[in-house]
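Dear colleague,

Thank you for sharing your sequence with our group. We've completed the structure prediction you requested, and as agreed, I am returning the results in plain text so they can be pasted directly into your records. Please verify that the sequence below matches your submission; if there's any discrepancy, let me know and we will rerun it promptly.
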Amino acid sequence: MARDIYGFGWHQNSAMKYGCAKSVRVSRRFEYNPEWFHSINIVRKTLLIHASNVRNKAANISMKFTPKNLLITGGVGFIGSNFINYVYNKWPSCRIINIDKDDDKFGYSFDEERYVFIKNDIQNIKILTHILHLYQIDAVIHFAAITHVDESYANRIGTITENIVSTSQLLEAVTIHYNGIERFVHISTDEVYGDSQENEDRKDEKSNLNPTNPYAASKASCELILQAYSHSYKLPFVMVRMNNVYGPRQQLSKLIPKFINIAMKNGEYPLMGDGLHSRSWMFVDDCCEGIKRVMESGRLGEIYNLGTDFEISNYDVTIQIHQLVSKLLNRDSTSANFCFIADRPYHDRRYLINFNKVETEMNWKCTTDFRDGLYKTIQYYINDYERIEKFAKLKQG
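Please find the predicted structure tokens below.
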């Protein structure tokens, strides 16, 4: 007969049922008492937060936290997949559990003892709870979200529901049904601040939230829900709000990979409005290093802006993409062709954030020049395009 491992309905054969693992190590059995479990959980997490903050505030002493068993949500997505690649060798003693509802399309050649992929939706709290206990998760990085502003305008209720419910279910799992989390890193966006006006100071971590689109509103809501769970259940969290990120593996619906694809096909570039909306672009490796340092050294309960001083208009980004693609494909230099399309209901002109806090506390800053990062990104998509074209020809015979 299957054994109840955790005292609330999960058995040894559940691992096989949900495809999470072949076996389970059972340390001891206990009966699940909600009142006892919640009380112990809150006391433990209060002491954990206090101890961590005392360590961080000690003069000239910085105790780095390195996760042993890390749960990553949305690790098949753009930043999540790059982060897994980035930290795998930097945290050699860390086992990474990647949960995503999409297929693991990147085919990691990692040691199966150190990397586990689970295809599932994080809205399934029973499976989440099982994974937390099964792998003894001690840290979480929450990437999973719908992140495209245009998609959020096209499917407002769907975006809001997906982002808020998924985050809430994850928080429910790591606080109510599990008490082993030492660090929960929440990935948010600079868009929660709203846009920046001319001559306005850069937004810092204490600036008011003023989201202007459904995506940004959903992310701001997730932040508030996280803070509520932290207050009520003492969840030890750290949060990052990031500028725009670019690099390999980004979805083709996003501006830079979309325009790279158009450039390779000699198409017209669609620009919204006057094309002069500007963004601060951060290369994905710099972003991953920032998240890594926040996981290791971020003060619990704190928010950190991750950003760059580099800002460029959508029009100028397009020109650079057009020129670099032509150069890499050995084409003659030509002028870019544009077609101007209807703008969003509201289109933020720019986002300017102050990231002195993470620079001061963790000595982090972007080190990749935009043009160098763009070159690497374009080369990735050219190689991917050529691989797909070659496969299509082989398939046709």
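Summary note from our side: The CA atoms of residues 15 and 21 lie 5 Å apart.

Kind regards,
the structure core
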